[in-house]
Amino acid sequence: MTDLATSTPSLFDHVASADAAIRHFGGRLAFETDVSDVRGALEADAPGFVLVDTRNDRAWAQGHVPGAVHLPTRRIRDEAADVVPAGTPVVVYCWGPGCNGATRAALEFALLGHPVKEMIGGFEYWVREGFAYETADGVVQPAVDATVNVAGTGTGTGTGASAGVSAGAVSCAC
């Protein structure tokens, strides 16, 4: 019989206490949201925030989340007041998890006094989850990337807007 206390892998040589983990992960949820929760909120009559695509003009033209406004990160400081009413909550996104553009944009909105969250996964995961997006030529309905999401299970069990979706829907399988 193995004693787990003495055979713990080095991965847990330096682990936070439960209280520190609660503060850390609770803090992350205060600053981040995901594409499934954003989609669910946008489908509500009044989502309660403005979704801002912070990518450049060329990326916006390739496709963007329906309902998003376009405000590249470099223009936020000078143009946000023209696009987002003062104090309005904002959710920002950029290309995807390999880019910190949305993080920089979130900081800019915070400096302007907006409550702000970053949509983790960005546009890449919006598309990979199979959510429709807009281009100048119209709406595109991408196929679901099965490595990211499970199509047709309706097994969303999260606490966000995507929880409890009906059978046949695409949802976060977390």
UniProtKB/TrEMBL annotation:
Pfam annotation, one family: Rhodanese
Domain of life, per lineage: Bacteria
Rhodanese domain location is 45-135
Q: Indicate what this protein is called per its UniProt record.
A: Rhodanese-like domain-containing protein
The root-end lineage is: Bacteria, Bacillati, Actinomycetota, Actinomycetes, Micrococcales
